[in-house]
Write a structure and sequence with these properties.
Rossmann fold; oxidoreductase; single chain
């Protein structure tokens, strides 16, 4: 197997799907000759031509509308929103059109669209480039929301998303793009949407998280194991809509304690949903209240204070110790 970064794995997934299915189209701002702002589409236009990998005007609303129109005509668009903070310009196409198409048409039409986008903090981007908006889309019926945490999952999940017959929001954390390499199969494989992974087994407390916070949580689990010998189970949701709540509840019934970690702001987010469902399904197994570790309910800060705003390893360690000592 090849050693790949996450950005290389994402490129490879699109390359394989473009080669496999002539209905797959890749488009967005600067994705053609330039290969995308992060080089995710580098070389794809050269290999597959301008009819299948092409630039759009600097207008997210147009990208969203084009994706819906092409999907209705039988194509499988992979549309890039250059930074997810600008997705509001395409919100109507995504939430009002793509997400409702199957229901509105009584199953006559569907929208096999992948909206790819970089997001996430820790890389000191300008305003509106780092916001974690997954909660908005996780609350929208008709959409799947996928957030990989490593190169292997990124490739397998993106292939699954492109082959899915309904719209998928595929969010790629910028900090993970080139932060580490991992063995990734060079050929075709899929990772199922809506299925979480237990990335570290344990018996004393469950940490549920996704995206870049998986690495933060694993480091916190190592520190707690070193300081007090507690075995922390870490679950990577991989898909935040739908949530694989069965895997979460099964783990909580074993450990009796849970911490939910997300990079996004606290209110009404994915962590709140996970905590609520644990309470509904496993409250009699809990030995302590479920604790959330999140960013504060403010707008995303300027880069100078970004490190103070984002959840840290120390904050996750503190939460784990609090539920252990409750």
């Amino acid at each position: 197997m090849a050693q790949m970064t996450m950005i290389q794995a994402i490129t490879d997934a699109m390359r394989l799907e473009l080669a496999r299915d002539p209905k797959v189209l890749v488009f967005g701002e600067d994705v053609g000759v330039n290969g995308g702002v992060f080089r995710a589409t580098a070389g794809l236009q050269e290999q597959f031509g301008e009819q299948r990998v092409f630039d759009t005007p600097l207008a997210e609303s147009g990208i969203g509308g084009l994706a819906v129109g092409l999907a209705v005509q039988g194509f499988r668009p992979v549309a890039e929103i250059q930074f997810f903070g600008f997705v509001f310009e395409a919100f109507d196409a995504v939430a009002s059109q793509a997400a409702r198409l199957r229901y509105r048409s009584g199953g006559r039409y569907h929208a096999p669209i992948v909206f790819r986008s970089p997001f996430g903090g820790g890389v000191k981007t300008p305003e509106l480039h780092a916001d974690s908006l997954e909660g908005l889309f996780a609350q929208t019926p008709g959409l799947k929301v996928v957030i990989p945490s490593n190169p292997y999952d990124a490739k397998g999940l993106l292939i699954s998303a492109i082959r899915d017959d309904d719209p998928v929001i595929f969010l790629e954390h910028m900090k993970l793009y080139r932060s580490f390499r991992q063995e990734v199969p060079e050929g075709d494989y899929t990772v199922p949407l809506g299925k979480a992974a237990v990335v570290r087994p344990g018996k004393d407390v469950t940490v549920i998280t996704y995206g870049a916070m998986v690495q933060t949580s694993l480091k916190a689990a190592d520190k707690v194991a070193e300081s007090r010998g507690a075995q922390v189970e870490v679950i990577d949701l991989r898909t935040v809509s739908p949530i694989d709540i069965e895997t979460v509840v099964e783990s909580v019934k074993k450990t009796n304690r849970a911490v939910v970690v997300q990079e996004a702001q606290r209110k009404a987010g994915v962590a709140a949903e996970v905590a609520a469902q644990i309470n509904e399904r496993a409250i009699l197994h809990l030995e302590a209240p479920v604790i959330r570790v999140t960013s504060p309910d403010t707008v995303y800060p300027f880069a100078a204070i970004e490190d103070q705003w984002l959840p840290t390893v120390g904050r996750v360690v503190k939460a784990i110790e609090d539920v252990l000592d409750f």
